[in-house]
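Exercise: predict the structure of this protein bound to iron/sulfur cluster.
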Amino acid sequence: MKTQVSLIRCLSYQPDLVRESVKRGLSLLGGISAFIKPKSKVLVKPNLLMAKQPEYAITTHPEVVRAVLRLLKEINCKIIVGDGPSVWGYQAENSDNVYDLTGIKKVCLEEEVELVKFEKRRWHGKFPLTTWIDECDHIVNVPKFKTHGLTILTAALKNLFGLISGTYKTELHKNYFKPEDFAKAIVDIYEKAKPDLTIVDGIVALEGDGPATAGKIRPTGLLLAGADCVALDSVLTMIMGLKPLDILVTKEAVARGLGIADIDNISILGDHLKTFMDKPFILPTTSIQQKMISPIIMKFVKKLIRYYPAVEMSNCIKCQTCVKACPTKAIRLIKKGIVFDYSKCIACFCCQELCPASAIKTKKSLFAKMIGL
Ligand code: SF4
Ligand code: SF4
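Solution:
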């Protein structure tokens, strides 16, 4: 049998429109109770990467979260909302500030729903995940559709990285900085904490050097729902203008038999996929290395094709977030500004992801430029 997802056109965050669209998407799949048991305890996990307002399109829009909360309330669930925002060095970003600026705190207050922090953790295999997943019967994943320097796409599967409690994210970036290793880590988390339902906020997405301030806003006007995170990410990958298996996280999940990436085996209910595929996404600069080069050529030239962070001092506000975020301590602030020690840099791009001022750009090695990457 084909795996089912629903794809709904929704052109704005006008609250009634979002609620109607989310409801329509889930009705096509049998309604919310086809996924979530009435009266159960549910963890709702949006993407709350950093303290930025919803219009930056870095975090899940609060109206999408509200629509999900309303449906869960209709079936009398006990709801908890939370996320593990980004980490600077060994200090988690101030969750109160993140919850405030992203609009999630306001929505939770208005909907009388508990908003929690991911402070306590329990080890699940190699990863310390929030204990809230042990305390809840279901996880409802509400990711944002964005590009990502390390994984190309961040949506259904990558959003689960936020289940990692607090400061361990820095360790993970340090130990799993190669895209193929990071992909395995994400899929390990998916195996341990599989959401029962995922609703992707793609009403306004990010393209280019996402997933944060260096990305470009891209209105895509869509909501996508289903239980199979692999299928959901595969549909989004097609909308970006790529093939599902171009995404290493998807490829790894398929290799482990965790979902369907073959678009012919995904039944897309609602609006037609082709109507969302008008213009390919601008991809992150670093993604070209993963997508374009065949593994055989890659083996020989990999060391020569490199990407580095570089600062645009006119944008830099000298907040030092990048200095704290760097897992290998490759960044310093001196009188002239931010400097990088490239001999220590592992190209994880945590600095770019966390820079609040879009001041960190991607620089290519000479060889990458010479071969036109
Ligand atoms: S580059 Fe970005 S994160 Fe680093 S100091 Fe400047 S503004 Fe802050
Ligand atoms: S300087 Fe290099 S190692 Fe440090 S955060 Fe940036 S990309 Fe990662």
